[in-house]
Amino acid sequence: QQQVKQSPQSLIVQKGGISIINCAYENTAFDYFPWYQQFPGKGPALLIAIRPDVSEKKEGRFTISFNKSAKQFSLHIMDSQPGDSATYFCAASMEYGNKLVFGAGTILRVKS
Amino acid sequence: KAGVTQTPRYLIKTRGQQVTLSCSPISGHRSVSWYQQTPGQGLQFLFEYFSETQRNKGNFPGRFSGRQFSNSRSEMNVSTLELGDSALYLCASSLVEGDETQYFGPGTRLLVL
What does the alpha-carbon distance between residue B47 and residue A20 come to, in Å, rounded to a whole number? Predict the structure, then answer.
C-alpha cells in the first residue's frame, strides 16, 4: 500500500512536443503529490506539487493532472525542450508527513 | 539563500567500516530528512529529524542511524558497512515538521568496496 507506480521507465520526445509521465498509488491516506526533476550528479529538485482537492495545477510549461477516484496523477511537460532532459520522479506523502514515497523514475530525453 | 549542503560529496569505504555523513539544511529550516538512492531500489526514506528528535523512520536496519543538532544540522551514520550500502545519500530540508515541501541537497555518493 506504500507503493507509487510510475510509467514509462523512459521516454523520448521531440523538441516542442508534449511529455507525459503517469503515476498510480494505492494508499488513500496520501495527501500530497509532488514531482521532482533530477539531473545527473544533482539532488532532486521540486518541480510542482498537488493535493487531492484539486484536479489540475499548472506552473509554466508543467501541469499536474490528478484523478482521485482512479488514484492516478500525471505530469505533462508542454513544449518540451532539450534542457528538460532529466529523470523525473513522482512521489506521495501523508498529511503532515515528511516521508516521501517515490516512484521508480522516468528518464526523459528531448531530441532537438 | 544557500541551499542544502552535504559533506563529503564522495566517499569510498571498505566493508565493515563505518561512515558519517553531514547535512546542513537551508537557513531557517528546522526539519531534515534522509533518503537513500540506488539504481535497484530507487529513492527510499531513511529518517526525519525535527528539534533534535527522530520523528519518523523508514525500513532500514539499525546500522543506519542519525542525529540532529541544536542548529538543525544533521548527521547520519552507517555502521558495519555492506556492499549493498553503496548509494547516493540525499538530505532534504523543510521549514518545519510535517512540511511536505522538501528541498534536496546534492547528495553524498558512498562506494563500499
Answer: 31
Nearest CB neighbour to B94, from listed A43, A98, A105: A98
With cut-offs at 50, 70 and 90, classify the pLDDT of residue B93. Answer: very high
Parallel, antiparallel, or unpaired for β A10-14 and A72-77? unpaired
Provide the pLDDT for residue A94.
85
Q: For residue A95, what is the nearest residue in chain B, using CA coordinates?
A: B98
Cβ pair A23, A65 in contact under 8 A: no
Give the model's pLDDT for residue A1: 56
**Secondary structure of residue A82 in the 3-state scheme:** helix
Name residues 39-78 of chain B within 8 A of A (Cβ): 42-45, 48, 55-56, 58
